[in-house]
Amino acid sequence: MAASPPSGALGRRVLCGTEYATVRYVGCVPPTAGIWLGVEWDNPQRGKHDGTYEGTQYFKCNRLNQLVDISVRECAVSHAGETEEISRTCANIRHINLSKNLVSSWETVTAIASQVQNLETLNISENKIKFPSTSTSVSGVFSKLRILALNQTEVTWTEVLLCAPGWPALEELYLTSNNIAVLERPDNVLQTLKLLDLSDNQLLDGNQLHLIAHLPRLEQLILRNTGISSIHFPDAGFGCKTKMFPALKRLAINDNKISQWSSINELDKLPSLWSLQCHNNPFMDTEKNPETLRQLIIAKISQLEVLNKSEILPAERKGAELDYRKIFGNDWLAAGGNWNPEKNKPSEEFLAAHPRYPSLCLKYGAPEEGELKGQQPLTLKNQLLTLTIKCPEKPEQKPVEKKLPESMTVQRVKGLLYRLLKIPGSELKLSYESSKLEGKEVELDNDLKPLQFYSIENGDCVLVRW
To answer: Which terminus of the chain faces fewer neighbouring Cβ atoms within 10 Å, N or C?
Structure first.
């Protein structure tokens, strides 16, 4: 009892002998006289009751042994503390946030987790941790762990795989900003993983993805700002489904360097994909109208239901597919397409650029002749350009001179080059040098645009790289 408690006593920390507590109540406790302080002891074994006296509840204690979710972010935690102290005081913890502390080794993490019987979620991001460099003995410490965040811990993929045998039930793994450049195949580990976040790691190339492509339960893959410039599933041909990423439903590839539409075509090979985020990639700059851009992506990926966090309604899909079928109808005819099924043999180059076109024709019927009239802009003059085609990085390929209509799309130029070079159009990167501006090179970065769009003139030189 205190006759006059100090100002602002409520919530203060107090020390009584060797026992710590928090002031939870300041006031009268009838029928007794005076002002009383009610405290919550740190030690759950201390104290007679839970803030109740003579049937009246004056305050409630947060019983540590009933805590399920604990965050000690930025609390300078460096060690587990006294042996069994955590399990003695907080026996029911399931979720721990240890981010941005002073934890320096995986052994310390294990020492903490070993005292938490039912640990499901662990966040140790923003700690510079030394991870094991050899295989660790498998124990039951993390046997119930479902979610693990190791962002900004300097962990390598190799170290992840060395620790992974100890995570038999892991479903979500967050590894952002760790300078992971090289992946390895996760043999017999991470087989329960449903979500993997590798954002802000500069992967060497898109082929790195093939090494994690057979995680059987992976439903969500987040690859924001990973530096990838292409996506390719070589095990499946045009219009077929890949065996890679069999369960992948949600893919985020924002803020990357994907410049070719062929990578978007490849995504149609994923058998379960229904949500895609792809903002801030160079291929998106090829179409200035955002609505047209969205329609093209929808038409190219058949099972997509959500694009850039916006739902694709059935009417929008139908409109996108009908427009796509019409827009590229003349290209289809020029490449060997025909209304007569027996004569309908579009070229490989066309199918590489538009792998869904045959299925759209089956779904809606081939575009009728009347639909295809007037597809070229009225202002586009179909003049022939005399151009030199050169492969600057392949001196054995002699420059050739070609007369091409200025209405010819970049995609059709690639089809022509396929016949000359036997290199698939999806692998070709085109640019041109103006005969009037020596040394200036302009990238032909939109497969759908005609040569005239880039102001190419007679005598200019088209540069081909792969």
So the answer is: N
Q: Are strands 69-71 and 220-222 parallel, antiparallel or unpaired?
A: unpaired
Q: pLDDT grade, residue 382 (50/70/90)? A: very low
442, 431 contact by CB (below 8 A): yes
Tokens 């075509």 sit at which residue?
265
Residue 288 and residue 89: Cα distance in Å, rounded?
A: 61
DSSP 121-139: EEE-TT---BPPSSPPPP-
pLDDT tens digits, residue range 111-141?
999 999 999 999 999 999 999 988 877 789 9
The structure tokens listed for 35 are 């002002």
H-type helices in 328-390, by residue range? Answer: 329-334, 348-353, 357-364, 369-372
Residue appearing with tokens 């760790």: 178
**Longest CA–CA separation in the chain, Å:** 106
Phi then psi dihedrals of residue 244, to 5 deg: -80, 150
Conformation bin of residue 80: beta by default, left when phi > 0, alpha when psi is -120 to 50? alpha
Residue 167 pLDDT grade (very low, low, confident, very high; cuts 50, 70, 90): very high
**Phi and psi, residue 90, nearest 5°:** -135, 65
Token reading at 397: 């390929």
Q: How far apart are CA 419 and CA 425, in angstroms?
A: 10
Q: What are phi and psi of 230, to 5 degrees?
A: -155, 155
**For position 6, what pLDDT does the model report?**
61
Q: How confident is the model at residue 377 (pLDDT cuts 50, 70, 90)?
A: very low
DSSP string, 244-257: SSTT--EEE--SS-
Is 208 in contact with 186 (CB distance < 8 Å)? no
What backbone torsions phi and psi does residue 95 show, to the nearest 5 degrees?
Answer: -130, 125
